Amino acid sequence: MNSALILSDLMQAASFASAVVLLVLQIRAFRRHSHVSFALLSATSVAALLYLIIWQIMALLAYEALPAPLWLYLLATAFFLFQIIFGTWGTISLFKAYRQLSEKVGGAENTIHSLQPNDAPITAILQVPLASGSATPPVASKPRLQHYAECAHRPRQTRPRWSCRPGRWLGHPALSKSR
Which DSSP state fits 100? Predict the structure, then answer.
């Protein structure tokens, strides 16, 4: 058998298995929390499974050199559109519920703020150069002034050498080398 066909069969089986796993997790979440978003996402997963099954039937018909009936294409299209609409609706519903819960539980200090163009981040983001042009992951640390203010009141013996020197990277000792 051709290795491309074997790989294709494995990918189809993996996508079907992942859809089943998502469906089980969504049904469990709906039973536990009884929130409409989990029901919508479960319906989306069912539609995705039916869509995959219909396309497998159509592929089998094509392999047998038989024409797939038009109603099969229309049914697959209906399941796909159902999946898009209900998946988006369920995700929006879940995000809204999470936002309401975080505002209710956390109060003003734990709410999810939307970023505006002039908003400054709460922590400073430092970029550490890596070897040979690879991507640089951000490293979060305290803003410099706040960090130096905290270092200034410590006795010199208890200050870590690498963290309180001006012109050095703040944070982990491996990142403390001068630019």
Answer: H
